[in-house]
User: Which sequence fits this backbone?
């Protein structure tokens, strides 16, 4: 007997599980293949800082009981300055969040197969995907196959849909900590805040963070891209673990802090323009298509939105009387992605590259610039608004901007 479905999804992360949730609600036969065992899920894939915003919670019907804490402010720090802005947020208990999505999808009819490692696509005589192989020689077939495996991208890579470049890969590590001094007199009050710090002495070529999860508990981590600034400031042989441990040992806010249950989260994402995201009978969603928010590093909301755009596209194509699932018909997904998931991505990536490559002195000036501008300037700039971005640029930034253009980095 051959297993056949309307849709097969590889990966039970937020994007894959949300896509299954949407499609099952519409009555489609959906199966999700997840590498981890059900008993351990999502131990190995619990890789997100899980900071998000209320708009995601309300848009996707996420319950309060998967939230570790709600925050009121976003704080940006540089080596000697900081900027704070009222912007409500939520720090999720990421494992509970993922388990909720799976359970809700199942309640609506989605099938899940755990311990199912997808390895490659099954192609028909014309080279078009018609199913997937997993766990070596097991097979299943579907009208549409969706890769939601993140940077691993075994299907999207085999189909030449994505090309995730190593030099654009951000790697990160995070601890959950207690006894953190969240209201230290030398810094902004972080008791109800999500804080990002731009400081090459801590995270060369990236940033570090403290996300409040309680009065004295927080998620604490760093990430960086191995870019020019990282190569300039990085210490030979020092790992991402070493950078986080070094920061924790030096920052006075962690003087009495301890790691909770030796909890460590690791993750990676690519910060680049996507090469593609679909072909005949196939879509790529979530972190398989680089859609992380370029300034805040928030990937949950963008991943969920890409899942919804994919589900809407599949629904449109499968309800068409001719059930057309060729690349041209599925191109609706790409249009929705550029409109709703990551609009003005090129302009936003320019701001991101500038931030990660600027020297520490420029970060201090950036904080002062933010304090003198309209409160919404940063948010507008992050949305790719050119006027807002211009307010934050200086003549001293021209060499970096020229470098981006010369290297044809799609800015």
Assistant:
């Amino acid at each position: 007997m051959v297993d056949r479905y309307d849709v097969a999804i590889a990966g039970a992360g937020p994007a894959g599980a949300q896509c299954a949730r949407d499609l099952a609600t519409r009555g489609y036969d959906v199966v999700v293949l997840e590498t981890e065992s059900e008993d351990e899920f999502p131990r190995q894939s619990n890789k997100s800082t899980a900071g998000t915003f209320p708009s995601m919670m309300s848009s996707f019907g996420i319950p309060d009981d998967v939230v570790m804490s709600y925050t009121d402010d976003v704080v940006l720090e540089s080596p000697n300055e900081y900027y704070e802005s009222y912007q409500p947020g939520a720090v999720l208990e990421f494992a509970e969040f993922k388990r909720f999505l799976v359970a809700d999808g199942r309640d609506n009819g989605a099938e899940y197969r755990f311990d199912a490692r997808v390895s490659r696509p099954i192609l028909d005589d014309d080279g078009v995907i018609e199913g997937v192989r997993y766990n070596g020689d097991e097979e299943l077939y579907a009208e549409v196959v969706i890769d939601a495996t993140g940077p691993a991208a075994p299907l999207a890579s085999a189909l030449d849909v994505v090309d995730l470049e190593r030099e654009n890969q951000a790697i990160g590590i995070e601890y959950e900590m207690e006894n953190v001094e969240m209201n230290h007199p030398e810094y902004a009050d972080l008791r109800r805040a999500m804080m990002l710090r731009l400081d090459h002495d801590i995270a060369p070529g990236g940033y570090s963070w403290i996300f409040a999860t309680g009065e004295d508990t927080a998620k604490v981590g760093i990430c960086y891209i191995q870019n020019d600034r990282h190569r300039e400031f990085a210490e030979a042989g020092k790992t991402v673990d070493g950078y986080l441990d070094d920061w924790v040992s030096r920052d006075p806010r962690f003087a009495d802090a301890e790691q909770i249950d030796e909890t460590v989260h690791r993750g990676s994402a690519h910060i680049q323009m996507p090469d593609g995201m679909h072909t005949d009978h196939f879509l790529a969603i979530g972190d398989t298509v680089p859609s992380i928010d370029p300034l805040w590093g928030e990937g949950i909301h963008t991943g969920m939105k890409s899942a919804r755009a994919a589900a809407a596209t599949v629904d449109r194509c499968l309800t068409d009387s001719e059930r057309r699932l060729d690349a041209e018909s599925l191109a609706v997904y790409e249009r929705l992605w550029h409109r709703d998931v990551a609009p003005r991505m090129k302009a936003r990536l320019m701001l991101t590259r500038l931030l990660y490559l600027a020297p520490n002195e420029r970060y201090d000036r950036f904080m002062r610039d933010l304090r003198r501008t309209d409160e919404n300037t940063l948010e507008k700039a992050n949305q790719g608004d050119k006027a807002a971005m211009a307010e934050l640029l200086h003549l001293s930034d021209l060499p970096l901007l020229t470098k981006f253009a010369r290297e044809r980095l799609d800015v």
